[in-house]
Amino acid sequence: MTDFRVNGLVIRETEHKDNDKLLTVLTEKYGKLYVIGKGVKSLKNRHMASSQLFAYSSLNLRKTGNNLYYITDSDLIENYYEIRNDILKLSLATFVCDVLCEVSREGTEDISILRLALNTFYAIAKDIKSLEFIRASFELRILTECGFMPDLSHCRDCGCELPSIATLDIMNGNFVCNKCMEKISFTNAENTFFDTGMQRPVSIISDSVLQAMRYVCTSRQERFLSFRLDESEQEMFFQVCEKYLLNQLERGFYSLEFYKSMI
Ligand SMILES: [Zn+2]
Question: Which of 10, 25, 171, 256 has the most CB atoms in a 10 Å sphere around its CB?
Fold first, then answer.
């Protein structure tokens, strides 16, 4: 097979035999690709810089069977060195990579996921916002890019426009207004958030947090961090975005626990 050229971001690196690495590379045209970097653990290797975690490069790849590729040429575009030099940034970016690995698919064109990854790394590297602000916004926006945007416009039961405080059903990604919540509590001791005896997670959301969520989901992607949220409301925003991500993906992340243990 002939070589082909792609721009790709390394989102995972694992040990391979000898001086090789097995890389997971997120590309625009082909989604996630598994790439063998031959000899790239050696400092003398010409593809060494492009084969590190967080490296974004123009790569020439050649297929080597079993959906594996290897690098025949590489030009580093960006390596986000500021992330590598700060343990907190490094651990947050590692969590971002783990989420990207989880949601991206092999062989499918997906420009928006790669673009979001690059925007997020840039924001972490350059301190565009606090790390927690970036993390929460990324968590919500990546779900939106994957088709899991919560319904942020209306109450799911009565269809009214959402009032200043509403309840988010984390599992279903929709809201219930206060009036409907009262009815639920009145007619049903358990309420409809209880499902076969198990409580589904819910979050009470204020108007500013709802506005912030709407902004993150619907803004032009390169502007997804360009909003303000009062300091007193930020914790609620951080919590709901994290809960929403973990529940929608139905898993936890060791890298997230590690990052959180340090903040
Ligand atoms: Zn309602």
Answer: 25
Task: Provide the percentage of residues in the chain whose pLDDT is more than 70.
Answer: 93
Mean pLDDT of the 118-133 span: 98
Q: Collect residues with CB below 5 Å from ion ligand 1.
A: 155, 157-158, 177, 180
Kindly give the distance from the C-alpha atom of residue 129 to the centroid of ligand 1, in angstroms, as a whole number: 35
Is 256 in a helix, a strand, or coil? helix
Query: What is the pLDDT, as a whole number, of residue 199?
Result: 54
Q: Does residue 107 fall inside a structural domain?
A: no
For residue 98, the CA-to-ligand 1 centroid distance in Å is 37
What range defines the domain where residue 238 resides?
Answer: 131-263
Distance from the CA of 193 to the center of ligand 1, in angstroms?
Answer: 14
Give the distance (Å) from ligand 1 centre to CA of residue 189: 18
Residue 169 has a pLDDT of 87
CA distances from 67 to 28, 51, 70, 101, 244 (A): 17, 18, 10, 16, 33
Separation CA 130–CA 139 (nearest Å): 14
- 198 — pLDDT class (breaks 50, 70, 90): very low
Q: How far is the centre of ligand 1, averaged over its atoms, from the C-alpha of 251 (Å)?
A: 30
- Compute, in angstroms, the gap from residue 124 CA to the centroid of ligand 1: 38
What's the gap in Å between 227 CA and the centre of ligand 1?
A: 28
Classify residue 114: in a domain, yes or no: no
| E strand spans, the chain | 4-15, 21-27, 31-37, 56-63, 68-78, 151-155, 166-169, 174-176, 194-195, 198-199, 202-205
Domain tally for the chain? 2
